[in-house]
Amino acid sequence: MLIALFNILIFPGFIFLTLFGWIAEYIDRKLCARLQNRMGPPWFQPFADFVKLVSKEEIIPEEANPTMFKLMPVLALTATVTAFFYIPLWGKSALFAFNGDLIVVLYLLTIPTLTYFLGGWYSTSLYSKIGAVRSLTQLFAYEVPLLLSILAPALLANTWSLSEMAAFYGTHHWYWLFNLLGFAISIIALLGKLEKVPFDIPEAETEIVAGTFTEYSGRLLGLFRLSIDIEAIVGSALLAAVFMPFGLGLPPVVGFALFILKVLFIICLLSILRTVFARLRIDQMMTFCWKYVSPFAFLQLLINLVLKGIIVK
Amino acid sequence: MHKVIIPVGPQHPALKEPENFMITLSGEKILKFSARLGYNHRGIEKACEERTYIQDVYLTERICGICSHSHSTCFVQAVEEIAALEVPKRALYIRTLVAELERVHSHLLWLGVAGHEVGFDTLLMYTWRDREVVMDILAMLTGNRVNYGINTIGGVRRDITPEQSKEVAKATNTLEERTKYYIQIATKETTLIKRLSGVGVLSHDDAIRLGAVGPTARASSVDRDVRRDDPYAAYGELKFKVITDNHNDVYGRTLVRMGELMESYSMIRQLLKNMPEGPIAVKAPRKIPAGEAVSRYEAPRGEDVHYVKSNGSEKPERVKVRAPTLANIQTVAKMLEDRQLADLPIVIAAIDPCFSCTDRLTVIKEAGVRKNKVMSWEDLHDYSIGWYRERGIDFAGLNKKLTRMLK
Amino acid sequence: MIRPGKMLKAVLQSLFKKPNTLNYPAEKSPMPDKFRGKLLFHPGKCIGCKLCMRDCPANAINIVKVGDRNFEAQIDLGKCIYCGQCVDSCLKKALEMTKEFELASLERGKLKVVYHADNKESPAK
Predict the structure, then answer these.
(1) What is the distance in angstroms between the Cα of C32 and the nearest Cα belonging to chain A?
(2) Domain membership flag for residue C47
(3) Do C85 and B58 touch (CB under 8 A)?
(4) pLDDT tens for residues B145-166?
(5) Per-residue confidence at C14, pLDDT binned at 50, 70, 90?
(6) Gap between the Cα atoms of B68 and B70, Å rounded
(7) In a domain, A262, yes or no
(8) The pLDDT value given to residue B343
(9) Gap from C63 CA to chain B (nearest CA, Å)
């Protein structure tokens, strides 16, 4: 019981994820700033932002549904933290594992987007509503490529469980190289999921102020921000587990360090990508995802099907 | 989704100045666009009538933050024409030099703003970093980064030393190299082109019909530039091309502005090379003889027009300003027809709007009322209290509450 | 060739460059010579012609006679637009612009500066 509580609250649960999320946010912001030839914030900035938001007054719009409005940030946070337990960090098994946990993780990672939609919808501001509709529209564009590209490695490993996938790639060392195309696709999809440039359409500042979060303030906004940070960690950890399954047999400390490095590599990749593009329009994003990204995801699936027939007997 | 009307402004991240646009949306599609100007009305024309000519030079400079030199030169030219002053050639050259440097800083600023409006913040950071080069040059030449205060009636206030002109030449080389890079980015980066091309289309005929000016018109292949058509200052002695483009869209406007930057660098070099010797100002009388004049000036945003009427006293009788944005703002509604909400910020930004330039007198016409009426201060006061009371906000009650709280 | 990520090279290069921005209150960039900053008044040179008062577009300067051939200047930094016209108008070069530009203040009183006839500067009462 105590160990379960420790796992949920401290490691690898809430506290660890929060701290790691802040570190990742700092690295993202600092790297982005340096890429733009700026200085960037000091190391404690994400923490300071959080403290500031938490200490501020919460304003709930008169027309908004208070229960839903308050519930959504908590739900987003819970979903992302829960998803983390099913991802193998180092070694070959996650904290909890069962056959089919891959689908559960992907499902749990969809919940934040739904909370953005509901939170935006129930705050009744026009900007929020447009942002809410946009984030749901965007969901349909990136979710399919993401699912397909993660399905391909799972197909090769012949399992629906992340832990068993880790075990498979742990024994077949260089098989992960077959999934590089899928990795590229899932990075693009993750950009969409985390609503970063070029897919930050739901919170496009110059169009709809802050989208869903326009009416959010104080503690609730702080929780939303935290859940976005944690979502970035969980998304990157998922990609690291699925597409970079190497060095899994190492001792815990080295393995843990390697895991952190893998996640930070993906975070850095995301922040480099978000500096070099302009924001697309929602119709352009739909076209791009359905016309180019999804077919490539199918191609990856096809490659893995053929491979499975030839090599993996 | 049913129709919604969303307000963009007076406070909105896309707008750097307060102005209100009401957008009727159906989903993402813009059905109707209406602009309401007047939030930045400062009564600057009236203020000009209350001050002497020399004070007005500084006042007109503050009509706009970015094209401050444009407005002050335009005003000064009109006054000089009335007073029949022969401005020394060196003064004209220095004026033109500052004008071209101002164009460089304005166009680089625009590119950054355009980048920001389409979510390309890296472009914003880079262009504004390089814009600092020209800002430093302007600060060195004139003593300030924005309100240069270089003009005075009858000439300019500061001479340019050989060392300074060397610095300017050096900075011009740096800027030219950087601008070439930005042209590369603007014409090669896929995501940027996707957001710019085909957006905010203004056909050649529409540009003429709606009276577009400056780069907005030139991007619709309207070959019109005051610098060439009605040369003022030293432009008559300079060789330059008027850049036009037939893309008709925001992409075309970007190309025109970038092309103008390159022309500006060549003009700056010519000015530095051919700078004549001599005095930099003639003495202007305090009292300007009676008369009137219209002065035209090609500001970075388009044609700027000042009208000055004098009555022989120290103060002008009437000053009228027509800023370029006023001519361009009508085109926005045309450009936004059948576009998406996402295109709104970049289309508004593409005319390089300057609302504080534009906001002069506002006349609000009520439907069905033929006669215009002037509202006095008391009327306005009562109107605003009534407006809020209708919406359930009673300031008398709030006032009492506030006084109680303060006690 | 049109391709996405055209800025990638420059962006990665700037990782190895020094940031272009300054950590402002700690580091400051130098102002150019002849920068138009805070006004400085030399009481000894003033002859009280009040041309500066007449030409000031913002009515920010006020010259007061305090004794025989003794003048003091009251300058409202909140009103001053730093155009430098008073410096140009002054026949005796009694006014000068300095490079000082950080003049914001939380108290309105501190924005009113009086240059006394004995060459001392103080905020107005």
Answers:
(1) 23
(2) yes
(3) yes
(4) 888 888 888 888 888 888 888 9
(5) confident
(6) 5
(7) yes
(8) 87
(9) 18
Question: SS3 string of A22-33?
Answer: HHHHHHHHHHHH
Q: What is the rounded average pLDDT of the residues C36-41?
A: 86
Query: Which CATH number do you get for residue C98?
Result: 3.30.70.3270
Average pLDDT estimate for A291-299:
89
- Residue C69 in any domain: the answer is yes
Q: Which residues of C touch B316 (CB under 8 A)?
A: none
Q: What is the pLDDT of residues A195-246, one digit of tens each?
A: 888 888 888 877 888 888 888 888 889 988 899 999 998 899 888 888 887 7
pLDDT in tens, B1-28: 578 888 887 888 888 888 888 888 887 8
- Domain region containing C83: 36-123
Residues of chain A in contact with residue C11, where contact means CB-CB under 8 angstroms, are 35-36, 272, 275-276
In CATH, the architecture of B44-358 is: Orthogonal Bundle (1.10)
Contacts of C57 in chain B (CB under 8 A): 51, 55-56, 58-59
On whether residue A3 sits in a domain, the answer given is no
Give the structural domain span for A93. 17-310
Residue C63 lies in a domain: yes
- The Cα-based distances of B373 to B41, B62, B360, B386, C85 in angstroms read 18, 30, 17, 18, 40
pLDDT tens for each residue of C44-94 = 888 888 888 888 888 888 888 888 778 888 888 888 888 888 888 888 888
- pTM of the full structure: 0.87
Q: Which residue has 């007054």 as its token pair?
A: A57
Sorted by sequence, the CB contacts under 8 Å of residue C106 that are 6+ apart come out as none
Count Cβ–Cβ pairs < 8 Å, chain A vs chain C: 35
The residue to which tokens 């996402």 are assigned:
B342
How far off is chain B from C85, nearest CA to CA, in Å? 8
Any idea where the domains of chain B sit in the sequence?
Answer: 44-358, 364-407
Q: What is the ipTM of this complex?
A: 0.86
Number of C-beta neighbours around residue B302 at 10 A: 28
Distance between CA atoms of residues C20 and A216, nearest Å: 34
- For A65, the token pair is 């549904």
Residues 3-42 of C with CB under 8 A from B: 3-7, 10-11, 20, 31-36
Please tell me the total count of domains within chain A: 1
C84 with B190: Cβ contact below 8 A: no
Is C18 among the domain residues? no
Are the CB atoms for B305 and B325 separated by under 8 Å?
no
Q: Which residues in chain B come in under a pLDDT of 70?
A: 1, 361-367, 369
